[in-house]
Amino acid sequence: MAGTLQRSVRLVNAAVNLTSTDLTTIYTVPAKTTAIVREMFIANYDSSARNLNIQWTDTSATATYSLIHDKQVATDDYLRLDNLNVFLDATDVLKAQAATADAFYVSVFIEELYTPIL
After folding, report:
1. Global pTM?
2. What Å distances lie between residue 26 and 1, 2, 8, 15, 117, CA to CA?
3. pLDDT attached to residue 50
């Protein structure tokens, strides 16, 4: 009988307060891990509607992809993205960028699958 691959599963929360307009790392997948981004909340706490971007970098392909581009979120409102199922490999990076500083909290809920043979 062939052996089965055992994986440890860990649930992780990652969050950032976008205090600048710089591209900001929310989460980096640890070594020997695959991650599944399950859900994301983006809260605008500014007194005006503001725009932001969410992207991920596939480090093995040296490529960056946009998940949300220039999305406007109304003042004191939030954007909830559920059932995302964005699969990330070890060292891939999830990032956010606000068009205006001090306007957004971004919270991400992730399932990590540890695979020691990677």
Report:
1. 0.89
2. 42, 39, 22, 6, 26
3. 98
